[in-house]
Amino acid sequence: MGPAGTSGTASRNGEDERARRGGRVRLLHTSDWHLGRSFHRVSLLDAQRAFLAHLVATVRDRDVDAVLVAGDVYDRAVPPLAAVELYDSALHALADLGVPTVMISGNHDSARRLGVGAGLMDRAGIHLRTDPVTCDRPVVLHDPHGDVAVYGLPYLEPALVREEIGAERADHAAVLGAAADRVRADLAARPAGTRGVVLAHAFVTGAAPCDSERDITAGGVASVPAAIFDGIHYTALGHLHGCQTVTERIRYSGSPLAYSFSEEHHRKSMWLIDLGAGGEIAAERLDTPVPRRLARLRGRLEDLLADPAHEPHTGAWVEATLTDPVRPYEPMAALAKRFPHILSLGFDPDDRGDDPVASYARRLAGRDDQQTAEDFVAHVRGSEPDPHERLVLREAFDAVRAAAATAERD
Question: What residue spans carry the region label Disordered (predicted)?
Answer without folding.
Answer: 1-22
